[in-house]
Amino acid sequence: MAKRHLSLKDLASELNISISTVSRALKNHPDISPELTRKVQELAAARHYVPNPLAMGLLKQETKMIGVIVPDLVTHFYSSVISGIEEYAKNRGYFILLASSYESMEKEIESISNLLKARVDGMIVCLSKETSRFDHFLQLIENEIPLVFFDRVCLTELVPCVVADNRNSVEKIVSHLKEEGFKRIAFISGPAYLSISQERIEGYLSGLKKSGLEFDPDLLQSCSMLTEEAIRITDSFLVLPNPPDAIFAINDMVIFTVMKELKRRGIKIPEDFGVVGFADEFHATFSSPELTTITHPTWEIGLKAAELFFKKMEDPTFAETVVLKTTLVARESSKKLKIKN
Amino acid sequence: MAKRHLSLKDLASELNISISTVSRALKNHPDISPELTRKVQELAAARHYVPNPLAMGLLKQETKMIGVIVPDLVTHFYSSVISGIEEYAKNRGYFILLASSYESMEKEIESISNLLKARVDGMIVCLSKETSRFDHFLQLIENEIPLVFFDRVCLTELVPCVVADNRNSVEKIVSHLKEEGFKRIAFISGPAYLSISQERIEGYLSGLKKSGLEFDPDLLQSCSMLTEEAIRITDSFLVLPNPPDAIFAINDMVIFTVMKELKRRGIKIPEDFGVVGFADEFHATFSSPELTTITHPTWEIGLKAAELFFKKMEDPTFAETVVLKTTLVARESSKKLKIKN
DNA sequence: TCCGCGTACGCAAAGCATTGCGGAGAAGAA
DNA sequence: TTCTTCTCCGCAATGCTTTGCGTACGCGGA
Fold first, then answer.
1. Does B3 reside within a domain?
2. How far apart are the C-alpha atoms of B293 and B334, rounded to whole Å?
3. Which residues of B touch A4 (CB under 8 A)?
4. Domain range holding A287?
5. CB atoms within 10 A of CB B185
6. Does one domain contain both B99 and B171?
7. Domain identity same for A218 and A333
8. In Å, how far is A64's CA from the nearest CA of chain B?
9. Straight-line distance from CA A8 to C1' D23, in Å?
10. Minimal CA–CA distance to A268: which of A250, A245, A248?
11. Residue B275: closest CA among B225, B230, B326, B311
């Protein structure tokens, strides 16, 4: 119902000159006399003329829109990354078109199709937890549509990626727990085909080795990231003949569920059990006890992903993977030693 | 760098027919013979032809995009509402263009301008906490650009709005705390010009009256929603000659800050102090003690806002305000009586 | 044989901005 | 006076789709 927007034609007819002259005057083309240029620019400013992006898009074959697909919007990690992407994109005059995969590969494919219909210039994606095949992304690559992955990645030879230093993060967790006096460290990982699961498991194994702890397969479990399964796995750890005395998990949802289950069973954190998560500041500091956690530079992941996106636009062969450092913030949930003192 | 997209022209030349014939065949126009229609549709399907939305937009003067402006993305409440909006919009073939005001009126105005440049068909907005003047929205209304507000609203005579039942919510909180045995109930509200602040203060006053508690101005404070101020106000309550024994606050950020400050000072919740928030499920259940809270139907707010948006598109005079019911979920943080038993 | 009508399709304009090229007009030179 | 040249601006095509209107062809009836 909105009124028709102002166009070059309107300005042209108001000044009794041609559309092309208006267009040129607005970009200070030397062919247009200074006086006329001034007059046109003044009128355009007064009327708040803005070029029609649809027309520009049609002409330039670009929409200045970036499709962003995340597993969900409500998880702090993703919304924070999106904020970062948006910030960078905005400064380059680009907009973000948002789509959720709801952790479903089917919806992920559907989202790609939707974004393609909207003619986005490219996409920035975090894989759904179900995504074990990558045909849909290969198709994008074949069509030379710029693509960037973050966090959960794949096809790293072809696609620029932004990831946290997962391996090192987990090593930090293991060595921290070891130093705090925990000896049997359990890890609840995610689906096996996810890059973050694989890297963190590697870090778990190498971390154990470095810390001189031995690996017990019983203490490493994959989790679909559902609440019920997190509870089930936690319980299964507790009934082990030789149960763990510390635990960390792949995301905040899982680790908070674990904490809740431990508390429900009267197990004291950190006295009886050390707990560490991959979580965001907000959650970690408001939990009780405050959660020791690896913090991702979420905002920076978003900025970097956007930056890589624009690089990829300029250079289709670009496919660098940027690894961002994480920080282990030691809080109460892992402070066994301090408590003992 | 993406390849040129497939157009009607491509299909037409491949079949040696005119563009208009292809266009008509695709929409089963009776002028086109059944065989040709079939041939065209088969080719279009094989080539995955999708009409160019830019061309359509140019023609129809619409972009099928809705601008959404929220104070920030990382707050669960907003991201959840956005999810709801996105869901509804997607099913109607619309996309969402996201913009953050970062709680700043200046950025809010800038976002509106940006979205206008992108030629969104309309906007769904939650006011920034700074927004005390509404000229920028009046301008949208003058230009007949469909607009819907949610949560923090204004100009309700002109604009459809979706809000939670704030007054009733607060009455529920007050009566709940009263029943649990708390007698001096403090409230940390938000900036005075925000609709949610006003309505909740009204609910606070009427709730006190209904519960037979008297109003003490010392126990009602406005807060800019910054951590430092939440701490300052909490402290100021505690040094009152006649301090409160319960508290609730306008959002989860504030209430968790309050809880943390209370705990830091060794005050026991809920034994010494009852605490209630306006917060989301996730945070509330993972805090310790678990937080008694008013839960907003966030997803539904988003769905409803989108629904009203489409109504507003059809009927420019439409300006209904929809009030959604909230629920008080009683958890540990307010269970004084249970503890005593 | 010719008219009329229906069938099945093509032309072109509109929506908007950009840009190569052509052209009108003026001023200077011969 | 006439030709050249430069300045300054307009025409038209391009990108893509929709749709009113025009048209070619075929067939039946007179």
1. no
2. 9
3. 61
4. 166-297+328-340
5. 27
6. no
7. yes
8. 9
9. 36
10. A245
11. B230
Contacts of B135 (CB under 8 A, 6+ apart): none
Q: Report which of B205, B227, B202, B223 is spatially closest to residue B215, judged by C-alpha positions.
A: B205
A41 touches strand C (CB under 7 A): no
Number of residues in chain B: 341
pLDDT digits (tens, 9 = 90+) for A158-179: 999 999 999 999 999 999 999 9
Count residue pairs from A and B with Cβ separation < 8 A: 128
Looking at the structure of chain A, the number of domains it has is 3
Check whether residue A203 and residue A333 sit in a common domain: yes
Q: How confident is the model at residue B2 (pLDDT cuts 50, 70, 90)?
A: low
Q: Please tell me whether residues B123 and B271 are part of one structural domain.
A: no
Q: Which of residues 15-44 of B touch strand D (CB under 7 A)?
A: 19-20, 23-24, 26-27, 31
Q: How far apart are CA A238 and CA A245, in angstroms?
A: 9
Mean pLDDT, chain A, integer: 91
Q: Which nucleotide is nearest to A56 (CA to C1')?
A: C17
Q: Which two tokens stand for residue B104?
A: 């700043």
Q: Do A118 and B96 touch (CB under 8 A)?
A: no
To the nearest whole angstrom, how far is the Cα of A314 from the nearest Cα of chain B? 8
Let me know if residue A322 belongs to a domain: no
Chain D footprint bases within 7 A of protein beta carbons: 7-12, 14-22
How far away is chain B from the Cα of A196, in angstroms, using its nearest Cα? 22
Which residue bears the tokens 């408590």?
A339
Cα separation of B321 and B156, whole Å? Answer: 7
Q: Which of A48, A64, A59, A66 is nearest to A10 (CA)?
A: A48
What is the spatial distance, in angstroms and rounded to an integer, between the CA atom of A31 and the C1' atom of C21?
A: 13
Same domain, A305 and A283: no
Q: Does residue A3 belong to any structural domain of this protein? A: no
Q: Are residues B219 and B108 in the same domain?
A: no
**DSSP for A65-126, written as a single string:** EEEEEES-SSSHHHHHHHHHHHHHHHHTT-EEEEEE-TT-HHHHHHHHHHHHHTT-SEEEE-
Q: pLDDT tens digits for A84-120?
A: 999 999 999 999 999 999 999 999 999 999 999 999 9
Compute the CA torsion angle A148, A154, A158, A160 (nearest 10 deg). Answer: 30
Q: Are residues B218 and B157 in the same domain?
A: no
Residue whose Cα is closest to the C1' of D13: A59
Q: Work out the percent of chain A whose per-residue pLDDT is above 90.
A: 75
CATH number at residue A257: 3.40.50.2300
The residue that leads in pLDDT, B339 or B309, is B309
Contacts of A109 (CB under 8 A, 6+ apart): A136
Written as six digits, the tokens of B77 are: 């409440």
pLDDT number for residue A341: 42
For residue A1, give the nearest of B86, B260, B313 by CB distance.
B313
B146 vs A2: CB contact, 8 Å cut-off?
A: yes
In sequence order, which residues have a C-beta less than 8 Å from that of residue A338 and are 6 or more positions away? none
B227 inside domain: yes
Q: Which of A217, A228, A229, A248 is nearest to A328 (CA)?
A: A248
- Mark whether A287 and A220 lie in a shared domain: yes
Residues 60-119 of B with CB under 7 A from strand C: 61
